[in-house]
């Protein structure tokens, strides 16, 4: 018979003697025990209130970290649960999520222009999970990015496509990359790559009968009990202390990226546990986690969801909450690392940004860029803006606009001969961009630098002098 223990505190060694725990029969694994640490936080209480509304219906108003408010409404439509997010006093939802069994659909109109600029669909095809993301990053009414992820446990295939002009006319999706690999994602140390022969899930405890969790996050189960791969008392204390920070991190995530926050909250409401062990053995790997999002079908087919921490990762108590958020994004949102995994994809960036703008981990060092990479298009501007230079193809129109504005004509044209000039085919221009380098839609170039390519003649000026220094307006606060 499994025993349930409620402890008011974080230290587990001798918890009942120290905190006067109450044991109750809970059923489950013979000889096991489950310690629930009642060390709730204000952010945890707010998360539980939101999850209760989203699961059971009703309405709740949530205040984001930037002071804005979101009204969340949950209701049943037949056998489906529908959850909608409304910004402030708006009557049009910025995000709608529909859940029916393991089938999920999200629609986002983040800039509230009546056009859907984000869509996420999760379905099962022949027993295989298929997830599709459509994104209108420029907010121009066209889904320019499509990402399809096939599989969730075992092997996962990810196809990334971009909308482009086709040679035969019209526009369509063109494949940019195709990746296929095991459905376990890892967080690695800077400059380290996991050995191909190293199984990052090796050493994960086989006995999951004894666990510990927080009252705020009951389905995040730390495996204890002394079995191989289980977390010892000191490791468990550190992990639970770090998990106490997660509700506040989810608030940050929801305020920056509603859909990502919604995926995480639905994982916490799924009823599926994530078991956290301390048996990781691969050099250079802090943690490895089964890719989600959690589903009834996958849990029945492949067993419990696992996160295997390396002892070195647990010892780094200062960055442990960031590591755990990183792993939870793999499990809860089902997100894999991007191509090349240079530490600047959504998982790395969101985990750092929502962990007090940490610069820890691969690719860290510029919190404003992490903020922009993590944020949905309507929130990127709150991270700051910068002035960047880039090459513009076919710059005749902009060159014409620059005439008569004190711009040296030599910058604007290709010199054929004395008094004879030809049109510049590519030029260097300055534009405002988000802190992740993406140009701000509809802004267009704001400064002409010089011509960089001629089809006929030669460049009049090869280098622009007196260009203003690139600058960043750091407006984000976390």
What percent strand?
A: 35-45%
> Mind describing the biggest β-sheet?
10 strands, antiparallel
Any low-confidence stretches, pLDDT <50, length ≥5? 10-30, 465-478
- Kindly state the number of beta strands: 25
Shape: globular
Termini separation = 45 Å
Helical percentage: 10-25%
**Overall pLDDT score:** 83
Strand order of the biggest β-sheet: 4-5-6-7-8-9-10-11-12-13
The radius of gyration over CA amounts to: 26 Å
* Domain module count: 2
Description:
It is a single chain. The chain is α+β, with helices and mostly antiparallel strands. The protein folds into two domains: 40-380, no CATH class; 384-473, no CATH class. It is 22% helix and 36% strand. The chain has twelve helices and 25 strands. It has helices at residues 15-19, 42-56, 233-243, 246-256, 258-268, 296-302, 311-315, 320-333, 346-353, 367-374, 396-402, 409-412; strands spanning 3-7, 22-25, 33-37, 58-63, 69-77, 80-87, 95-100, 103-108, 118-125, 128-135, 145-150, 155-165, 171-182, 184-188, 211-214, 217-223, 274-280, 285-290, 305-310, 385-393, 413-417, 420-434, 447-454, 458-459, 472-473. The chain has a ten-stranded antiparallel sheet with strand order 4-5-6-7-8-9-10-11-12-13, with helices on one face. It is globular.
List the helices and strands and how they pair.
Layout: E1 3-7, H1 15-19, E2 22-25, E3 33-37, H2 42-56, E4 58-63, E5 69-77, E6 80-87, E7 95-100, E8 103-108, E9 118-125, E10 128-135, E11 145-150, E12 155-165, E13 171-182, E14 184-188, E15 211-214, E16 217-223, H3 233-243, H4 246-256, H5 258-268, E17 274-280, E18 285-290, H6 296-302, E19 305-310, H7 311-315, H8 320-333, H9 346-353, H10 367-374, E20 385-393, H11 396-402, H12 409-412, E21 413-417, E22 420-434, E23 447-454, E24 458-459, E25 472-473
Parallel strand pairs: 1-3, 3-15, 16-17, 17-19
Antiparallel strand pairs: 1-2, 4-5, 5-6, 6-7, 7-8, 8-9, 9-10, 10-11, 11-12, 12-13, 14-18, 15-16, 18-19, 20-22, 20-25, 21-22, 21-24, 22-23
Helix pairs in contact: 2-4, 3-8, 4-5, 5-8, 8-9, 9-10
